[in-house]
Request: fold
Amino acid sequence: MGPVSTDTPDNIHATATTQFLAPVRSRGGEKLVRARGLSHWFGEGELAKQVLFNIDLDIYAGETVILTGPSGSGKTTLLTLIGGLRTVQHGSLRLFGQELRGMARQELVRIRRQIGFIFQAHNLFASLTARENVRMALELDAMPRAEMDRRADTILRRLGLGHRLDYRPDALSGGQRQRVAIARALVREPRLILADEPTAALDGASGREVVTLFQELTREKGCTVIMVTHDNRVLDIADRLVTLVDGRIATNVITQESSVICDFLRHCPIFQHMTPAMLAEVAEKMFVEEFPENALIIRYGEEGDKFYLVREGSVEVLVQGRDDPQTNVVLGPGSFFGETALLTGAPRNATVRAREPVVLYSLGKPEFQQALEGSLPFKEELLRAIVARR
Ligand SMILES: Nc1ncnc2c1ncn2[C@@H]1O[C@H](COP(=O)(O)OP(=O)(O)OP(=O)(O)O)[C@@H](O)[C@H]1O
Ligand SMILES: [Mg+2]
Reply:
């Protein structure tokens, strides 16, 4: 075969793997949060300490995102920036399609009204009952008092507090107080909920219960949730798991898809020798990237930096960068490309362009090479596949 082969996934790669790919719930949804190159410092001048570094993050409508990472890694800082509670200093942060950097105070207040906040110290008003605490959240809306009470009671009942409507916080347990705080954040049915360790003060069983209720309600109402937690027992509710380490995003995975990615990798000939654990490790390091129609994903002659899997849509491989419908190969969901340049160190020998809006999974060169190091059969198989295609 001619040059089509080298960086061009052939039919082996392009097998009908669509069946392994379930639709992504969040895809097609609106992007609620979009951070690009977001950095943050505390302190001034010489004493300024950078705590967030160049954060790129997309969160889609309807997703439940768990933000985790060691203490001091910047989780609360990021959450409060997203919530418009801190001034964006550097980079771009869009919320509900609007840029927060440089936004006027009044506008920020308006945006914050569309967010439900649940913080570690849940700041309930000690002198108010559970119902009154929840009703507070509705008081800025023009709504008859009876309607406010009805909504407050409904949500408190859903959270299992029907028998505690008239109790003040000091007469409630930690778990009950946390549930009041959740009710207060949810009662206005906000588009976005920001929660900072909502289960921190709770023991395992009540933490789990609170989170399960929380999940039920947010799913029902289609809320997007960003929750900071250290609690390993609640990670399974996440659609996306983002890990911060030292102010940087260390991993960003769509958890429910990571098993899908594994399945999909396993069905590709060159990955099939990897153990499930190895596949999971590779899947965890993959990022989701979107490209609009006609975008150039790989350019002929450039250095290879990533390996890609097609998640949704299709791409066209332009051999030697030339647009020639005769030799162009179209790759759809389940296909992969970009591995050869990573293996050989040679420049890209084809251009790859999005034929329509596409969603890809990408794996960086170091992670790709690490996967190779870890798997001798994988490497052999990959080299064999390449040789076979020449
Ligand atoms: N107001 C502040 N002034 C100065 N430094 C701060 C301030 N708030 C946070 N920091 C520092 O910024 C870094 C990130 O803090 P942040 O609270 O975002 O971490 P975190 O990941 O939420 O940690 P934890 O899990 O302990 O809550 C830490 O080093 C912290 O000491
Ligand atoms: Mg914190």
